[in-house]
Every structure is written in structure tokens, then in C-alpha cells.
Amino acid sequence: MSEQQKTWHAAHKESLSRGERAADVMRNSMGSWRFVGGFIAFMLLWAALNSWILAARAWDPYPYILLNLFLSMLAGLQGAILLIAAKRQDAIAAAMAQHDYDTNVKAKEEIERLTAINTEQLEILRELQSLAASQAALG
């Protein structure tokens, strides 16, 4: 894809750091039904293993203190990742708004230029009509 054909989004995506790309991937995966289903399955498996299946040798018996610790750490990490992703989305929205503004300014200039050309053409047409009318009157 040549530089001229490259969209703003493609150019922006190429400029992302590894951390920004990772935050986007994590945000997109954590905000999915697949993640929710996997998370619920993991919680049920943890509870089943520690309550019934391995009850005699459970590594985290009820009330699941270790699981609670992991969930707290996950919540803290998710909060940070979501803030990073939200901050990036704000930057993207601001850049897109500036891009839209620049496009609108260029379009306005082009419309004004075309309107000026149209006005000149109308003046020329009026002059030609006037000239044709005076030629017809003489002729």
C-alpha cells in the first residue's frame, strides 16, 4: 500500500507501541462474551475442585481466600488496562476530530474556489448573451 493510499487508521495503527497494542488486545478480549464464559467456567472449576473433588487435599478450601486474592489482583489489573485503553481512545478521537476539521477546511476552500469559477462563468455567459443580443439587434 503506497503512502498516499494509506488510511489515517492504518498509519495510526503502525505508530502504536507494543504496550499500546497489548492494551488494545487485552481490552478487546476482556470485553467479550468469550472471556465472561471462560471466567465463569474457571470460577466453577475452582469451586468444584476445592469443595468436592479434592476436598481432602484442597489448596484453597471454602471461603476461597486464594481465589479472592487472584480476583482482587485481576480487578486491579483490568482497571489499569481499561484506563490505558480509554486514554488511547480519547487520543484517537481527538486526532480524528482534528483530521475531520482539516478535511472540512480544505473542502470549504475548494467549494469557495469552485463557486468563484462558477460566478466567473456566469458573468462570461451574461456578457456573451449581451453581445449576442446586440449582434442580433444590429443584424
Explain the overall architecture.
By secondary structure, this protein is mainly alpha-helical. The chain is 83% helix and 0% strand. The chain is built from four helices and no strands. The two termini are 63 Å apart. The mean pLDDT is 87.
In short:
This protein has 139 residues and is mostly helical. It has helices at 8-14, 18-30, 33-53, 65-138. It starts with 7 loop residues before the first helix and ends with a helix.
* Rounded radius of gyration (Å): 33 Å
Please provide the count of β strands. Answer: 0
| Domain module tally | 1
Mean residue pLDDT: 87
Shape: rod-shaped
Helical residue percent? over 70%
Name its key features:
139 residues; mainly alpha
Chain-wise SSE layout:
Elements: H1 8-14, H2 18-30, H3 33-53, H4 65-138
